[in-house]
Amino acid sequence: MKTRAQRKIQVAVIGAGLMGRGIAQVFAAAGHETALGDADGDVLRAAPGHIARNLEQMGEEPGAILARLRLRASLDEAVAGAGIVIEAAPERIELKQRLFADIAAAAPRSAILASNTSVIPITRIGQDLDPQARSRLVGTHWWNPPHLVPLVEVVHTDHTSDAVFEDTFALLRAAGKSPVKVLQDVPGFIGNRLQHALWREAIALVQRGVCDAQTIDQVVKQSFGMRLPVLGPMENADLVGLELTREVHRILFPDLDGGKEPSPLLGELLGRGHLGMRTGRGLRAWTPAQAEAVRERLALHLIALRASAPPADPEAGPA
């Protein structure tokens, strides 16, 4: 008998924004009938056009993939018959808690319940669910843009059944993703803890007047950032040797920013209405053309990496 990962199942994605439509694209491209739900009719109706443009940019024909996509304004209709339901709603814990209460009531009692939150502990999201539903709740943190970035963090809570955890991992691998297992439900999981540790120090350096924001980006992109695709931090530590690593840490760690609150610089910028690219200024200044060029450059870079990467092996185990 085929496992859930080996057969085509019905997938429901709740939330048709940037992340949700990208996740739905991945499953539809993998051959799964996929329902995409959103209470905002405009967002829902726009999703197929965005997916079609993604696929055309990737050099793929959208017709067959879009044919497996079903738009559903009603949550009950979206999750009916689903083997897995993935929530891709905004990062507000009360919203996610309400959504999962509704999803657990409407979806089949065998369905995997997955949240795409990037930082909220999965246990908190499911704290009000009954034990049977909590055993089916798992984290699946996809990265933006989800149709191009291969990694998905699969998060096990104290309540998640091992079968659900393994089935989710295998289903994502079979869909062409590169899942990793997060064995403890910590805020931010793995990737965002690493990413925001870097951001904390980067913003602190700007606030201290060590350099400007543009210099930060140049230093990262033209030094250790060039190595990261082929040399991870643990590999690099072993490469240079743990004696040197420890000596560097003895000198460096006492001077690193250890703040437990967001940087005051962020508060100052937000207070002046500098929200980032969408307002024309954040840590750096942006014209609309510059902002669009960054998005285009990122997409083309990821597409090129995807084209050169070896295909995922659905039968391979985790590293």
Automatic annotation (TrEMBL):
Signal peptide segment: none
EC number: 1.1.1.157
Boundaries of every 3-hydroxyacyl-CoA dehydrogenase NAD binding domain copy: 10-185
Keyword Oxidoreductase attached: yes
GO BP field: fatty acid beta-oxidation
Enzyme class, spelled out: oxidoreductase
PANTHER family: 3-HYDROXYACYL-COA DEHYDROGENASE FAMILY PROTEIN, 3-HYDROXYBUTYRYL-COA DEHYDROGENASE
Protein name as catalogued: 3-hydroxybutyryl-CoA dehydrogenase
